Each structure stands twice: as C-alpha cells, then as structure tokens.
Automatic annotation (TrEMBL):
It catalyses: L-proline + NADP(+) = (S)-1-pyrroline-5-carboxylate + NADPH + 2 H(+); L-proline + NAD(+) = (S)-1-pyrroline-5-carboxylate + NADH + 2 H(+). One of its GO terms (biological process) is L-proline biosynthetic process. Its EC number is 1.5.1.2. It is found in: Cytoplasm. The lineage of its organism: Eukaryota, Viridiplantae, Streptophyta, Embryophyta, Tracheophyta. It comes from the Eukaryota. Signal peptide: none annotated. SUPFAM superfamilies: 6-phosphogluconate dehydrogenase C-terminal domain-like, NAD(P)-binding Rossmann-fold domains. This is Pyrroline-5-carboxylate reductase.
Amino acid sequence: MADEAEPKPVDKDNFKLGFIGAGNLSGSIATGLVKLGILPASRIFTAHRNPQSRVAFTSIGIKVFQQNRQVVEECDVIILGVKPQILEGVMLELGPLLSPDKLLVSLAVGHKLKVLQKWAGHGRFIRVLPSTACAIGEAAIAMHLGEDATEEDGELISNLFGAVGKVWKLDEKLSDAAGTISGAGTAFVYIAIEAMADGGVAAGLPRDIALGFAAQAFYGAAAMVMKAGKHPGQLKDQVASPGGTTIAGIHELEKGAFRASLMSAVVASTKRSQEMSQ
C-alpha cells in the first residue's frame, strides 16, 4: 500500500501538529499539550470558520486557519478529529494532500485502520482513542499502528499522547471495547459523581461541598486502583466493615443492579461502535 518513495521521517524536535476538526476532543488534546508544556502553541494549527469555536484554540495561542487544506499543507503530523460519520468525506476532499509524507492520526471510534488506509491511499496511519481528560493529562488512551507506520512514528505518537494520559498499545480487535471504557466511560463516571453528589445533598450537605467530596472520592479511589496494586474488590472489602455504613450502601447499589447497569452500558456502547464501523 505504501508509495515506492520512502516517506520522510518526522523531525521529533521541530514537527508541526495539525488538527482537522476543532471540536471538544481536539481542543482538550491541544490544551493539554500546551498547558503541560509538551508542545508550544506556535507549532500547533487547526481550522475553523466559526469565531466562537476558534476561541478554545486562539485563547492559548494556537493559529486557526480558515480551511483544512491550509492545516495539512503547514503540518507534518495530522490529527483527524472530525465526527466519524463525516470522516470519509473530509479525507476524500483533502485527497492527495494526505500523502505518506504526512503522519496521519485518527481519533474516530468505529473506523478501523483497514478503512482509514483505503481512504488515505497509504498505511502511514495510527489510530488513537483518547478522551477529553487529555486537557488535564489524565486520559486513558488506546493506540493502534497502521501497516506502514514506522516504529519511530509509533514512538512519537505514544510519547505525544503519553504526556496527556496513559497509553495502551493494543491489538485493533480490542479497540471498540477499549475506546468505550476510555471515552464513553468518562460520561458514565460523570453521571455517577453527579448522582453521589445528589445523594449528599439529600443527606443534608450543601451542593458545592457534596460535589467536591463526590469528585474527590472517585479521584482517590481511581488512584488507589492504579497505585496500590490491589484488585478493586479487595479495596472495597477494606472499606466495608461488618454491619457498617459502607456495606449498607453497597446493599442498596446491588438492589438497584448498579454493577449490571454499568456492564450493560459498556456492552451497549461497544456494540454501537462496532455498528459504526460497518
């Protein structure tokens, strides 16, 4: 699939990064890269005609062009962050500009590398499935390399996204489930935090205090799972003493099928991702 001419390697110290699609996810990644000092804003570019949508980028010093074509012409690494349902049209419109000299990165759920490579006409492609938590450097990120992406290409993108989250290099057959947990899963957690804060309000706490405690409880619990090296069931058992307050609350969660509901949500979102790739 690769052209006969060897594509030029990306200059790791001076490459320019372009975003095609200036939505929330692209904005979160760009914000994280700039605010965490990974890339200067002067080396990041995107395009958007809507003045309001440009603010998330221009407010941190990123240049916003009028046309996607200008971004591709300017940059060495192109991140495709448009909605999955319009990705094919955008890529076909940009056509020959998306040459093997450009390292292409897709953020789209559903579309597999085989399809992306067909649309681009080459296999120097990497799929990355992040979340908006990139903005604060805390995203869970799945990554898959295309058939012509070099080891150096993979290292570059892994280091780039590793600065705004934790990267797992996975077999692409796992992408739908991994992307669901890392992406849609954050929305499930937001709902759980909101619900727990509502419970705090119902129990008498002021709204701001209830939300702060709920968010910190989730943050601390996640950090314990990542750093303590113990199964979450073990950590739960350490909190739930016999006849205590925790086990009483867990009993209510079980009556409401809390675990089954979360499992079903992940399976349903994964199925939808698979449907979108058809």
